[in-house]
Automatic annotation (TrEMBL):
Keywords: cAMP, Hydrolase. The keyword Metal-binding does not apply. GO terms for molecular function: 3',5'-cyclic-AMP phosphodiesterase activity; 3',5'-cyclic-GMP phosphodiesterase activity. InterPro entries: cAMP-PdiesteraseII_CS, Pdiesterase2, RibonucZ/Hydroxyglut_hydro. Belongs to the cyclic nucleotide phosphodiesterase class-II family. It holds the Pfam family PDEase_II. This is 3',5'-cyclic-nucleotide phosphodiesterase. Transmembrane segments: none annotated. PROSITE patterns: PDEASE_II. It comes from Pedobacter westerhofensis. One of its GO terms (biological process) is cAMP catabolic process.
Length: 328
């Protein structure tokens, strides 16, 4: 015992230094307010209102270098955020300087229209997508027939403003100009149509954004099961800060009219499967952000009520609002 005390007295400087480093590491792992990511929704709905379609700016807290996950509505969402003082600069500066690139989950217009329409005003940046998704942009939109080809591939001439970066399964890719990385997982969005989930990471923390998806049972697929298996360890370790996932239709929507989308009941079924892998109590701490509702006005409130009713486990459901910052 005496020897231990003598050691501590002799080396108190070193011990103090170690303690200081330990504390510093603790501070660095999490920002002082405990948040790891900030998200500015530029559009949150799944149709009808063309000024509010899926698009989410995501950055680590403390950084203004964002990646934009999907780009259904871009400019109007930025205008709303600027008007509510989420950004200090002009809408033009946000588009050109703060958005460093786009992650595109799939090629449906409600996820890419904002990107296409704003391309003449935009700055040079990357479009990150699975090859099948990039092919839709390349072969259907940036063709000089649907729109001028602002990209670096496809129909000539190339205006070279956007560069495609092809994502591969199980390959982590750095998001240029940001402090984040992305890992892509293919999703099933109707028969043989591919959508994408993006696991966006910064240091040891991550956030999951899913593009449109059906439930495995309906899609006759195991894409969600594979995704849940891959992300469960991050939930167990409390590194996954939020899950963005769609709920497009009411429970009463007939199966054959789901078109690769989820209902409150199907969402809860899938979350239950994830909970079996991650532990229910762990998953209940993760905010589940409900995207892509195809319901408006009174119907939107009814869909929210249905989600509440079906949420028997008490998952933490969050409803994003256009231009209103979310911290995770
Ligand atoms: Zn959609
Ligand atoms: Zn879609």
């Amino acid at each position: 015992m005496y020897a231990v005390v003598q050691f501590m007295v002799k080396n108190s400087g070193i011990l103090l230094f170690c303690f200081f480093i330990f504390c510093l590491a603790g501070v660095q792992a999490q920002s002082p307010n405990g948040h790891s990511f900030k998200v500015v929704p530029l559009g949150v709905k799944g149709g009808l209102d063309e000024s509010n379609l899926s698009s989410y700016m995501i950055a680590p807290t403390g950084s203004d270098d964002f990646i934009c996950a999907d780009a259904g509505t871009v400019r109007h969402g930025i205008d709303v955020a600027v008007a509510s003082k989420v950004f200090k600069g002009s809408a033009d500066a946000v588009l050109k300087e703060n958005i460093k690139g786009y992650l595109i989950s799939h090629g449906h217009l409600d996820h890419v229209a904002g990107l296409i329409m704003n391309s003449p005003e935009d700055s040079k940046k990357n479009i990150y997508a699975l090859p099948s998704v990039a092919a839709v942009l390349k072969d259907k939109y940036f063709t000089w027939q649907a729109w001028a080809n602002f990209t670096n591939e496809g129909d000539l001439p190339h205006l070279d403003k956007y560069s495609y970066v092809y994502l591969k399964e199980k390959e982590k890719v750095a998001l240029a100009g940001t402090q984040m990385q992305v890992l892509a997982f293919p999703l099933s969005h109707g028969p043989s149509y591919e959508s994408t989930a993006f696991l966006i990471s910064h240091e040891s923390d991550c956030l999951l954004y899913l593009g449109d998806t059906g439930a495995d049972q309906i899609e006759k697929s195991d894409r969600l099961q594979q995704l849940w298996t891959a992300i469960a360890p991050f939930i167990k370790d409390h590194q996954l800060k939020a899950i963005f996932i769609e709920t497009s239709f009411f429970d009463k929507q007939p199966e054959k009219l789901l078109f690769g989308h989820l209902t409150p009941h199907l969402l809860m079924q899938e979350l239950q499967k994830l909970a079996e892998l991650s532990g229910l109590d762990n998953l209940k701490q993760v905010p589940i952000v409900i995207t892509h509702m195809k319901a408006f006005g009174a119907a939107e409130q009814e869909l929210v009520s249905e989600l509440k009713k079906d949420n028997q486990q008490g998952f933490k459901l969050v409803y994003p609002v256009q231009g209103k910052i979310l911290l995770f």
